[in-house]
Amino acid sequence: MKYFRLLDDVMFQNRWYLSAIHDVDNWLLSRPPMLAIDDPLRDRLLRVGLQQSGEALDFSFAGYADVPVVSFKTLQAISGLDGFTAFPAKIDGLQQKTSYHILHFWDEADCVDENKSCFGIIPENDPIRPDLAGNYRAVTKLTIDTGRTLGKHIFRPERLSGRVIISEEVKRRFEAAGVTGAVFESVNGD
């Protein structure tokens, strides 16, 4: 199976730009682990700021933590797959023609092929982020070892939770549904 990094299409002409999700620590929604079933976030309609109006996209990242925000069409495209939780969202200042959802990708895989990737590691006693010691930093080339992904379709690489990796099946579903705003970068070492 082939894999791709899921990116926000910042080259899309006249697009909107979303700001942070209000009233919640955005990092909670951009990193594993899965939120507990009784977490109060599950019962809230989350509000997303609109930094710059423009064409609404089916997939884009919001705020300082790059939290995925998707249209109902996108959510339908990945329906039935595991590795994420969807939360209903309201985009401030937007007359919504469809429903939007925040996706929390919580599944992880220890799958970075360190022999084929180019990266640095955050050292112990790092003066900026000592809490992230041992995690990847400055990854300039990411290659996934597909033998360690266990057939997952949507996940984040362990120690590199800011990246979202999808399978070729998810890419195919996005393309078949005509999802706007999503860009795919191969992480297969090709």
Walk me through this protein's architecture.
- The protein is built from 2 helices and 13 strands; from the N terminus they run E-E-E-E-E-H-E-E-E-E-E-E-E-H-E.
- By secondary structure, the chain is mainly beta.
- The longest helix has 10 residues, at 168-177.
- It starts with a strand and ends with a strand.
- The mean pLDDT is 93.
What is the typical, i.e. mean, pLDDT?
A: 93
Shape: globular
Proportion of helical residues = under 10%
**Major beta sheet, strand line-up:** 2-3-6-7-5-4
Question: What is the first-to-last residue Cα distance?
Answer: 13 Å
Main beta-sheet annotation:
6 strands, mixed
Q: Which assembly state applies to the chains in this document?
A: single chain
Beta-strand share of residues: 25-35%
Query: Low-confidence spans: pLDDT under 50, at least 5 residues?
Result: none
- The total strand number stands at 13
**Element-by-element helix/strand order:** EEEEEHEEEEEEEHE
Determine the structural class based on helices, strands and strand pairing: mainly beta
- Indicate the radius of gyration in whole angstroms: 17 Å
How many individual helices? 2
Short description:
Helices cover 8% and strands 34% of the residues. With 190 residues, it is mainly β. Strand 6 and strand 7 form a beta hairpin.
Features:
single chain; 190 residues; five-stranded mixed β-sheet; 13 strands
SSE topology sketch:
Blueprint: E1 3-8, E2 17-21, E3 46-52, E4 59-62, E5 67-71, H1 72-77, E6 84-91, E7 100-105, E8 108-109, E9 118-121, E10 136-141, E11 154-157, E12 165-167, H2 168-177, E13 182-186
Parallel strand pairs: 3-6, 8-11
Antiparallel strand pairs: 1-12, 1-13, 2-3, 4-5, 5-7, 6-7, 9-10, 11-12
